[in-house]
Give the backbone structure.
Amino acid sequence: QVQLVESGGGLVQPGGSLRLSCAASGFTFSRLGMSWYRQDPGKERELVAYIYSTGRTYYVDSMKGRVTISRDDAKNTVYLQMNSLKPEDTSMYYCKAQVPPGTAYWGRGTQVTVSS
């Protein structure tokens, strides 16, 4: 049974940092790319960052330079380090695994609120 559990969200002041974690189970984590998405109320989920099984990374332009995705295959965990946070980064953040032969799994999300 595939499970993804996000944690690390919270309330942070503008300019602050957070590190989100996503603990995965139920599949061979080290073989799959993992991604982080965000979703604002009334909007579709949008990709924030992706990390390949090789460790290669991809970032969307809007957050490039302020977020870092990483993974620890020994812990079956993917991280999203978020720095220099802005109020517009406020959102629900989800991790996603695309498990062969093609099913997408999502966690329940972790809320990030950037406010003074």
The mean pLDDT is 96.
